[in-house]
């Protein structure tokens, strides 16, 4: 058995984006794969009886500065969308369909939507049809495949599945937010981590090298 890493994420979460980018760098260095699990953060928060950070005034104020520092530290664009938080439900439903129907395309699609949302440019992803239009721009599925993804993303069964998986992640896995990262060593021991700043601890648990946020030895992408 080899080491395993599972990232549970929602595109609406900037820290899910940071974790996705950082762990993508590290799984290459560690010669292992990262399994992606799209979730609905709203369902997770509801099942865990948790509150969004922006509902706490001081957390909301602090978040802006944290995002600026994260952008510099991790070397990625992290601009607050004009409308935030936004309803990511249609998008997460589409990604959940991709997980089942086109698993080899999920990483690329996830990267595309993270970049699209957090680039600072305007976007419309508030309906499955709008998500479908963006999937066509992404360009890695045929028009027929995009149509099928849109169709399934709009089904009640897909929404129910996301709710059931969120409930299981909370009740069985102890989750309360995103990103939620589950790591398993070759000896079978598993540990869950919450947040985008746990890579050093993950490396220690997996007994893998840690080389900073860029995974190349640099202390940061630029000065803070």
TrEMBL record:
- Biological processes annotated in GO: glutathione metabolic process
According to the record, the signal peptide region is none
Provide this UniProt record's keywords sorted from A to Z: Transferase
Name the top EC class. Answer: transferase
**Catalytic function, reaction form:** RX + glutathione = an S-substituted glutathione + a halide anion + H(+)
- EC code(s) of this entry: 2.5.1.18
User: What residues does the DSBA-like thioredoxin domain cover?
Assistant: 6-206
Task: Show the InterPro entries listed in the entry.
Answer: DSBA-like_thioredoxin_dom, GST_Kappa/NadH, HCCAis_GSTk, Thioredoxin-like_sf
Q: Which GO terms describe its cellular component?
A: mitochondrion; peroxisome
Active site positions: 13
Q: Which GO terms describe its molecular function?
A: glutathione peroxidase activity; glutathione transferase activity
Q: Which family does it belong to?
A: Belongs to the GST superfamily. Kappa family.
- Full protein name: Glutathione S-transferase kappa
């Amino acid at each position: 058995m080899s080491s395993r890493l599972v990232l549970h994420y929602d595109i609406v979460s900037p820290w899910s984006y940071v974790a996705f980018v950082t762990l993508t760098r590290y799984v290459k260095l560690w010669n292992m794969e990262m399994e992606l699990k799209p979730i609905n953060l709203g369902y997770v928060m509801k099942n865990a009886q948790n509150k969004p950070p922006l509902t706490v005034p001081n957390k909301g104020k602090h978040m802006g500065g944290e995002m600026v520092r994260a952008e510099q530290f991790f070397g990625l664009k992290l601009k607050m969308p004009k409308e935030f938080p936004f309803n990511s439900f249609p998008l997460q439903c589409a990604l959940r369909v991709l997980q089942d129907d086109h698993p080899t395309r999920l990483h690329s699609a996830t990267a595309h939507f993270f970049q699209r949302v957090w680039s600072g440019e305007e976007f419309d992803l508030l309906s499955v049809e709008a998500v479908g239009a963006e999937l066509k721009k992404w360009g890695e599925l045929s028009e027929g495949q995009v149509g099928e993804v849109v169709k399934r993303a709009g089904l009640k069964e897909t929404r129910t599945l996301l709710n059931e998986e969120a409930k299981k992640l909370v009740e069985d896995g102890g989750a309360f937010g995103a990103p939620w990262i589950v790591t398993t060593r070759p000896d079978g021991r598993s540990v869950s981590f919450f947040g985008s700043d746990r890579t050093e601890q993950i490396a220690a648990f997996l007994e893998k090298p840690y080389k900073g946020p860029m995974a190349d030895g640099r202390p940061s992408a630029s000065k803070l």
